[in-house]
Amino acid sequence: MPLTRSTALLLCSLALALTLSGCGEDPEEERAEAPGDPGVEVPSEVPPDAPRILFEPVDFADLPGWSQDAHGEALPALRRSCDRLLSREETRPVGPDGLAGTVADWRGPCEALALVDADYAPGFFEDWFRPFAVIEPGDDTPDEGLFTGYYEAELEASERPGGDFSYPILALPDDLVTVRLRDFRADLPAERLVGRVEAGRLVPYHDRAAIETGVLDGNAEVLLWAKDPVDLHILQIQGSGRVSLPDGRTQRIGFAGSNGLPFVGIGRVMLDRDLVEPGKASMQHLRAWLQANPEEATEIMRENPRYIFFRRIEGEGPIGALGVPLTPERSLAVDPRLLPLGAPIWLDTTRPGPDDTPLRRLMVAQDTGSAIVGAVRGDFYWGTGEAALDEAGRMAERGRYWLLLPKTVAERREATG
Prior knowledge:
The chain has eleven helices and 16 strands. By secondary structure, the chain is an alpha+beta fold. The strands form two sheets. It has a six-stranded mixed β-barrel with strand order 3-15-12-14-13-16, surrounded by five helices. Strands 5-6-7 form a three-stranded antiparallel beta sheet, covered by helices on one side. The longest helix has 13 residues, at 5-17.
């Protein structure tokens, strides 16, 4: 559908107001929309407004707990990264501003990875990579940041409405329009706008309340019918899930798009209304309160105008921003403006809980999230279901990490200072 001149001018003016922002103050965070998902652009250069970041070379002996990890458990995740990276052109940069070199720099370690077993895993990383401490200068704790957790939601749904199954899980609507600003001018931000065309003008898309009260009837395919509206809302926050059908089958679904409106965390809404106590706003507590108070729950959930649409996923999942299935307890979400997706990362943080048990392990940067913003900021993927929710819903830990770069890239960085 053609855009009018006035619509194009609107796009340009809105582009100037677009900035990346997180919702880290909310007890829960939206994971649904992340660069790498369909229709979203991963930045290939560091945006001018991004935090300054430094990488300080260290030795593997400097990594706390390096010798105690079961490194072999990270190999499947790295193999998936390698398959993705090596499918691209040799000269393509890896990471913002080619931070991790080019695809050619990854060919050696990725091809060697095919011959590595779990016993040799530590030696493989030490032979092919060099660790760099990630530092944000000017911060009070320049090498520390916040690490949260996420999981793949589970819920009950049916392929047909009826009985307890009355809440639609929608595919992308026919009238939803996505506009990439750089399709109009190369110097515009690597952002996109979502809306619909009305009388020849691009206008914001319908909000959650309008969608849930039927404004899209007949204009969007219903993939499935959910049993519980709270679990459906949590699915929208997480962005992907595994659905249990009445006949015992399961179906994975994942992010297909959003209505483009701002995300408002329901945890923040409930805290502001004194419905939950500070420090007791984990996802588990929020879900229990909402399910016990269904009338208030509808109003509270509609305070979040953002709405997520889904697609069916066949095979393994969930799919992260890199475009590969995530590996439980080995996949990490990072800020793609600052760190390269696909690269190994050594993580040093603590498990959720009162005991401060160290959580030190080799991870692979394979995902992003709207609240994952900053030089030292990560989201730990715990897996699927209630056990994963128990860990992810409580995790808000301080920690640090080290980026592992191929030695060819490390040598060039050290040679150029």
